[in-house]
């Protein structure tokens, strides 16, 4: 495939959230109006063959190509995953390894969290000039600056000002060669491991420390949370409670947008699920993280689910 005429994207997903991934990919397809081909690399975290077949049956193969990569194959041997006690799954760290598991001829990639839907042509984002910087992102709509809770509470230790902008890592345009040259992955992992008590959103904490004041700020409409009011978003990001749950409580029109795209996939008959499955998912994240950390890093760490 001609790399010059291809938009490369990476998503990371487990089986539970594959329904979100289906809606995201369909939203990218539907809103894509230029001639580039769409190539997705999907890091799969224990995804069933049935889910993968359903996703393959949902796409337009004339435009979109899916490449599945097992999560266990994404981490280079000389890296160890950070150890944290959060309820976030280990797969959140896979974005850090994109420059290593993608083919080395790929120079740029767009990383997307799966709990998103796009309403603008992805080619607009793809053509964004990074101005020599490693990453482009949107200032986090909630945390916004490093001194707010959830940001970098020990920002003074890094010589940062309290009003230093803080970006959301759900959408990233990445210059892969620059990332490797600057050894970003190793720096972020070291930062997280050295500041676990401050890393409330672990991967986001580390990236904001390492890339503080060295990232390109995108238009805020490229990453709007589901409570956003104002101009129509280019991208809706369902942080917090997802529209796949009955307990979703953010804007109903954004939920309708999600289901509009989902209706165009093999999950067209999907119905919102209850709280039991949501809590089981969080518990499973803890148990899975505990077991994988023992295996990958050969250590056991203690944590409390309700702390």
UniProtKB/TrEMBL annotation:
Transmembrane segments: none annotated. It holds the Pfam family Glyco_transf_8. Keywords: Glycosyltransferase, Metal-binding, Transferase. It comes from the Bacteria. GO terms for molecular function: glycosyltransferase activity; metal ion binding. CDD domains: GT8_A4GalT_like. The keyword Metal-binding applies. This is Glycosyl transferase.
